[in-house]
Design brief:
Blueprint lengths: L5 E6 L3 E6 L4 E5 H5 L14 H12 L7 E5 L3 E5 L7 E4 H11 L1 E2 L1
The chain binds zinc ion (ZN).
């Protein structure tokens, strides 16, 4: 599906713009992406609604950090957060669902 292919990532200081092959574009804050972090430490904390709410509250209190972003093959991006999380691979499909749930369409 073309909606699962990320064609561009523009990184600002507090948020980024994700563009997909179907033409959709979203502005998504780094905190939103981080609240859906796919690393081994954060992923289990999103396994149910209760834990996810607690995790989101914790992330919301973090200072906004601009992560390093590195492409992983043709299917994902690895975000590296200066304060702790790393090596969480966010697949394009995952990023699209985060963008639709938490981002704003452009
Ligand atoms: Zn994490």
């Amino acid at each position: 599906m073309t909606s699962d292919i990320l064609t561009d990532l523009e990184r600002g200081d507090e948020d980024c713009v994700l563009r997909f092959a179907d033409g959709a574009a979203f502005r998504v804050s780094y905190l939103s992406i981080r609240s859906r972090c796919q690393c081994a430490k954060c992923k289990p904390r999103q396994e149910n609604q209760q834990r996810l709410i607690e995790f989101e509250e914790e992330v919301a209190r973090l200072r906004v950090e601009k992560p390093r972003a590195e492409p992983v093959g043709r299917y994902g991006i690895r975000f590296d957060w200066p304060s702790g999380c790393s090596s969480g691979i966010h697949s394009f499909r995952h990023l699209r669902s985060v963008a639709e749930d938490l981002g704003s369409a452009l």
